[in-house]
């Protein structure tokens, strides 16, 4: 105890002694004592003035229980002239006879302004004499007898050297005896008024006092009773050293211990911190008037009001210094040390042999140790947790209480955050700098901020962060009022309402600033830590809550957890159910901002700056990275790819998309949204309903963006990846892009189907999902990159006002096919060829005719859908829009036989047989503009086609006879003539053959040879089958029924029947039919003149199809017979002449 703080024996001791017997010295009634030199605690030199030693009258606090003898010779402070005036003015009259009360009254006044210097001098010498007289130790033994026996350390102290009282002060917190406790407390009140009254303090700190200019050890010009400020000066020096401020003086270790010990001993009563007491006396009356002194209550009250506007700056400064001392040694806070004493011992927070004692005493170490116990589910007393919360809030309110932040963040504070120190604003400003919102931050500053957030642990209770609490109060009251105040789920609730209409801007900023640091240490989310600490230890090799690994990058543990969260059973170990739910919750929240994903931000810092510097809106940065996936550096591409893969499995990670799509989800996808367990069903549902009326622009754009990202890698489509992973590895190895994988697998399926293999190489589940992917890709040209890239210039030129989606751009390109560039034209032709083979991939057709397909084609296979619709096109129940779409597809099919798979199959032998010259001239991937079909039509008229091909051509002829647009050659050559001769019929678009009839009637008026030839071909075709002439067929339908019912259609048979009936005077045809037939005869006659037979076969066909076929054949037969007879005669004559010549 040689280095102890020797606590002065109070005037109380004199009161005890004087009540027992007067103190005598050399037969004088009043003790005369040589005063001690206040500088060296040594007797004054000879000749120095002698002062009287006052005699106490009463034991403070315990005087009521002791007999009180009033001595006529008792000395009273009130009787001294130098103090009488001050006493009368400042102290109540009832205290005048009690020297202790007078002393306490006078020393708590502002010395320099309220008490005369002579009185101060008297008081100081009076206290000094008390502290140096060993006789009063015996009084301490008497008053604290019980306590001394209970405290073994004090019972072993040697008496007579003043160490006993110092020991009692050291163990003041353990004193239970009321009288002893009051006695020790009152003693400290006197000694702490001046550092020179403390045993050993002056010797240990002499050099530091002089170096720091904290005051002169000799009284000099400065009042000797005001030296309590010296301790305050040393404390500030200690703080400056801890913060490594420029020019800070290193204080000696033994002086540091003395300073901290004084601060610790003054921790229960703010009166004992003289500098703070005088600095905050008025503020105490203003803010803490009703707060009882003792046990640190006044300190805490003042701390709570530290940033009030009415708080004086001097008091605020003193309080800050006190708080900084607490940060260095938690025992400087009486209430915290007392409340947490048993918990510290219980959880061995003071028994770490690897930690230096100085660090072990730091507030941060205590908080981390006890918070670790709480997070591990251990019981920490409520009183201790309450104290911890107060000091965690204190750390978050004032950044300057953390010396590491003051040291390492000095330039950031000066550059960005000066003048914001109150109520945690500077700390949040530094957090914003740490996020990268205000420039770069020093790594040491970043680490200091991260450490402070761990110490304060605001994730466990948002109220610890005052700036956040104040900013988000209105949001919490509206959006999170169902959650208990202080619950960790409040932060989660705020994150769920980020970027919603309930969120306010200030709360949004404070929340993201805090979440940035919470995201970098998984332990700072208490719910996640509680649910996942077992999984983290098992799968990610984590340490304890308050242990960190410098080798572990920020966010690494959470990245490990979410990778395991989405593993399938066959992929190995997975998370527990509770942990997985929490990981998904946090992923959903943090996907709003790439800065909340430490791994993503760390690996993609360069790419974010390169590609996405202008993308500042919520969610745009990740979308930007996904858009530039191929251009990213390898590390960034991997992490973005992994996150995108997770999104495909659980699209709810895209919180902004979920918010935007809420109406569609509620209407169409609520079942899969409620029951979704990592299947990708929700996104598939959104894609399928992308064009519903409930779909808003934000949702549509978000869904389309996700589709566009999916085509970059087949892994980004969860259902496709799951269904086809094995097939891809087997059939399409080394192919990564989804669109290429789809093409590869589709080609395999088509080849297997065409070759009628017994067992398809692509599995059934993959084929089903492949169909879904193909249909989805057909909806937007951007989902087929090769087609999109080939047609970009054409889209800009021809379809710039057409919106993407619903296959509208593709439809626009189809309609402008003749104006497309060669490259785009080829791609569109190939696309149409695929769509005609598989109409389900024709998105516009399937969309427009969806209801008609359900009505007419439920039993048809998918590949026969268009054929079914064509057959029912003229039904009265057919929807006009669908009918129009079917007509478009028919027009397309008739441009090239390759676009009509049914015709192609039926005529595969006839086409090369009759139309090879056309095929020889054709180029790949370009339409033949109906030339092959036109060739087949002519052969149909000549009745030379195979039955299957003839049936298909007959259908085409019938359809094109009703709508001239279905005849590409007619449309090409006769567009101008139709506009000139038949504008009304063309405008009507009734599809009843009126335009064709108009052209036939106006055959003589047609000027263009190409058009005239096409009309003549129509006439020729109509002779082969009356069904090809819809106007004539309608007019003669009744006559056909009556006169030609037994005649089968085709090959001109019914037409011949009608012609014979027309010539038979016994048969009376319908007037309209008779008129139309006569018109046709005239047309055919004209056609025969205009277009004579080009060869024998053509002539023979004209004869055979002529209505006067019998007459012509009779004449021809007679002519042949005549020639035969003449030949016989000529042959005889020739033979005779020849014989005669031989005979010669």
Strand tally is 4
Strand content: under 5%
Poorly predicted segments: 1-73, 216-225
- Sketch the major β-sheet: 2 strands, antiparallel
Q: Tell the overall outline.
A: rod-shaped
Q: For the terminal residues, how far apart are their CA atoms?
A: 176 Å
Rounded radius of gyration (Å)? 52 Å
| Mean pLDDT metric | 80
The computed structural class is: mainly alpha
Number of helices: 66
Q: Please estimate the helix content.
A: 55-70%
Strand order of the largest sheet: 1-4
Quick recap:
This protein is mostly helical.
Fold topology:
Layout lengths: L10 H10 L11 E2 L2 E2 L4 E2 L7 E2 L28 H10 L8 H9 L3 H4 L2 H15 L5 H7 L1 H6 L1 H4 L7 H8 L7 H14 L9 H12 L15 H15 L10 H13 L8 H14 L9 H8 L8 H16 L5 H6 L1 H6 L10 H4 L2 H13 L6 H16 L5 H6 L1 H7 L8 H11 L7 H14 L9 H6 L1 H7 L9 H8 L8 H14 L7 H14 L16 H10 L11 H14 L7 H6 L1 H7 L8 H8 L6 H16 L5 H6 L1 H7 L1 H6 L5 H8 L8 H14 L7 H14 L6 H17 L9 H14 L7 H14 L9 H8 L6 H16 L5 H6 L1 H7 L8 H7 L8 H16 L5 H6 L3 H5 L1 H6 L9 H11 L5 H16 L5 H14 L1 H6 L5 H8 L7 H16 L5 H6 L1 H7 L9 H11 L7 H20 L5 H10 L3 H35 L1
Antiparallel strand pairs: 1-4, 2-3
Protein name: Golgi apparatus protein 1
InterPro entries: Cys-rich_GLG1_repeat, Cys-rich_GLG1_repeat_euk, GLG1
Membrane topology: Single-pass type I membrane protein
């Amino acid at each position: 105890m040689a280095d102890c703080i020797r606590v002065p024996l109070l005037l109380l001791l004199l009161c005890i002694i004087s009540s027992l017997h007067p103190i005598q010295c050399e037969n004088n009634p009043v003790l005369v004592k040589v005063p001690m030199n206040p500088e060296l605690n040594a007797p004054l030199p000879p000749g120095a003035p002698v002062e009287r030693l006052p005699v106490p009258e009463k034991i403070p606090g315990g005087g009521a229980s002791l007999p009180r003898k009033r001595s006529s010779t008792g000395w009273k402070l009130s009787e001294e002239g130098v103090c009488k005036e001050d006493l009368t003015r400042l102290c109540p009259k009832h205290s005048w006879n009690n020297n202790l009360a007078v002393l306490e009254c006078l020393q708590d006044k502002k010395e320099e302004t309220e008490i005369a210097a002579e009185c101060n001098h008297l008081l100081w010498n009076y206290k000094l004499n008390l502290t140096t007289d060993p006789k009063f130790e015996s009084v301490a033994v008497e008053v604290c007898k019980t306590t001394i026996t209970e405290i073994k350390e004090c019972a072993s102290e040697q008496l007579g050297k003043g160490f006993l009282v110092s020991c009692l002060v050291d163990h003041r917190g353990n004193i239970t005896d009321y009288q002893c406790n009051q006695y020790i407390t009152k003693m400290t009140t006197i000694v702490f008024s001046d550092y020179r009254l403390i045993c050993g303090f002056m010797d240990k700190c002499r050099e530091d006092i002089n170096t720091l200019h904290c005051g002169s050890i000799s009284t000099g010009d400065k009042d000797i009773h005001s030296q309590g400020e010296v301790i305050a000066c040393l404390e500030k020096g200690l703080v400056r050293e801890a913060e490594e401020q420029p020019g800070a003086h290193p204080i000696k270790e033994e002086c540091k211990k003395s300073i901290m010990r004084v601060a610790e001993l003054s921790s229960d009563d703010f009166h004992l911190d003289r500098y703070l007491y005088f600095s905050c006396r008025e503020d105490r009356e203003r803010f803490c008037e009703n707060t009882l002194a003792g046990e640190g209550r006044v300190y805490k009250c003042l701390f709570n009001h530290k940033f009030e506007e009415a708080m004086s700056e001097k008091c605020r400064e003193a309080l800050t210094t006190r708080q900084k001392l607490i940060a260095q040694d938690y025992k400087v806070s009486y209430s915290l040390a007392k409340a947490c004493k048993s918990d510290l011992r219980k959880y061995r927070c003071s028994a770490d042999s690897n930690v230096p004692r100085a660090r072990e005493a730091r507030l941060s170490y205590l908080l981390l140790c006890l918070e670790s116990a709480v997070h591990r589910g251990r019981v920490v007393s409520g009183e201790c947790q309450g104290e911890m919360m107060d000091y965690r809030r204190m750390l978050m309110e004032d950044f300057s209480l953390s010396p590491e932040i003051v040291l390492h963040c000095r330039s950031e504070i000066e550059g960005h955050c000066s003048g914001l120190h109150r109520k945690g604003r500077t700390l949040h400003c530094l957090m914003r700098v740490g996020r990268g919102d205000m420039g770069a931050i020093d790594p040491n500053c970043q680490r200091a901020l991260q450490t402070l957030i761990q110490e304060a642990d605001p994730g466990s209770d948002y109220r610890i962060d005052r700036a956040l609490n104040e900013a988000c109060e209105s949001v919490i009251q509206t959006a999170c009022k169902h959650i208990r105040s202080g619950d960790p789920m409040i932060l989660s609730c705020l994150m769920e309402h980020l970027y919603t209409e309930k969120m306010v801007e200030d709360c949004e900023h404070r929340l993201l600033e805090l979440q940035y640091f919470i995201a970098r240490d998984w332990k700072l989310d208490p719910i996640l830590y509680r649910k996942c600490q077992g999984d983290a230890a098992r799968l990610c090799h984590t340490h304890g809550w308050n242990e960190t690994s410098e080798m572990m990058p920020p966010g690494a543990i959470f990245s490990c957890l979410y990778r395991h969260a989405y593993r399938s059973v066959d992929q190995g170990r997975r998370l527990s159910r509770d942990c997985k739910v929490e990981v998904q919750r946090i992923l959903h929240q943090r996907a709003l901002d790439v800065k909340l994903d430490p791994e993503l931000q760390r690996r993609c810092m360069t790419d974010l700056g390169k590609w996405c510097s202008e993308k500042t809106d919520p969610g745009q940065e990740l979308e930007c990275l996904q858009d530039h996936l191929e251009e990213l550096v390898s590390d960034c591409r991997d992490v973005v790819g992994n996150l995108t893969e997770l999104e495909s499995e659980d699209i709810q990670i895209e919180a902004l998309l979920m918010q935007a799509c809420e109406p569609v989800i509620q209407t169409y996808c609520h079942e899969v949204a409620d029951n979704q367990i990592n299947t990708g069903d929700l996104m598939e549902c959104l894609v399928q309903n992308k064009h519903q009326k409930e779909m808003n622009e934000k949702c549509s754009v978000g869904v389309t963006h996700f589709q566009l990202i999916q085509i970059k890698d087949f892994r980004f489509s969860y259902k496709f990846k799951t269904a086809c992973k094995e097939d891809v590895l087997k059939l399409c190895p080394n192919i990564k892009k989804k669109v290429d994988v789809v093409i590869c697998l589709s080609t395999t399926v088509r080849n297997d189907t065409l070759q009628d293999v017994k067992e398809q190489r692509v599995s059934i589940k993959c084929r089903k999902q492949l169909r879904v992917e193909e249909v989805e890709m057909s909806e937007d040209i951007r989902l087929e990159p090769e087609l999109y890239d080939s047609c970009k210039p054409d889209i800009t030129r021809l379809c710039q006002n057409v919106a993407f989606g619903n296959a509208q751009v593709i439809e626009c390109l189809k309609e402008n096919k003749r104006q497309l560039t060669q490259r785009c034209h080829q791609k569109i032709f190939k696309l149409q060829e695929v769509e005609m083979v598989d109409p389900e991939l024709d998105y516009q057709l399937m969309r427009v005719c969806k209801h008609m397909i359900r009505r007419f084609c439920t039993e048809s296979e998918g590949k026969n859908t268009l054929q079914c619709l064509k057959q029912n096109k003229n039904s009265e129940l057919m929807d006009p829009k669908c009918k129009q779409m079917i007509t478009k597809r028919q027009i397309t099919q008739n441009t090239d036989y390759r676009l009509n798979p049914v015709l192609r199959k039926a005529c595969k032998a006839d086409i090369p047989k009759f139309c090879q010259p056309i095929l020889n001239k054709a180029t790949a991937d370009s339409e033949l503009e109906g030339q092959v079909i036109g060739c087949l039509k002519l052969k149909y008229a000549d009745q030379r086609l195979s039955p299957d091909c003839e049936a298909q051509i007959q259908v085409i002829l019938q359809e094109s006879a009703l709508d001239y647009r279905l005849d590409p050659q007619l449309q090409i050559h006769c567009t101008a003539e139709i506009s000139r001769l038949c504008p009304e019929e063309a405008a009507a678009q009734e599809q009843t053959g009126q335009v064709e009839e108009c052209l036939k009637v106006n055959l003589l008026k047609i000027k263009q040879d190409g058009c005239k030839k096409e009309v003549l071909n129509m006439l020729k075709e109509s002779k082969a089958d009356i069904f090809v002439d819809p106007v004539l067929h309608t007019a003669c339908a009744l006559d056909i029924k009556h006169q030609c019912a037994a005649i089968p259609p085709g090959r001109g048979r019914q037409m011949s029947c009608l012609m014979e009936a027309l010539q038979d005077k016994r048969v009376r045809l319908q007037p309209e039919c008779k008129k139309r037939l006569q018109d046709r005869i005239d047309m055919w006659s004209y056609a025969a003149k205009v277009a004579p037979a080009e060869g024998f076969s053509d002539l023979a066909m004209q004869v055979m199809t002529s209505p006067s076929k019998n007459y012509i054949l009779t004449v021809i037969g007679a002519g042949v017979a005549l020639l035969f007879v003449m030949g016989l005669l000529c042959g005889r004559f020739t033979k005779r002449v020849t014989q005669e010549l031989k005979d010669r």
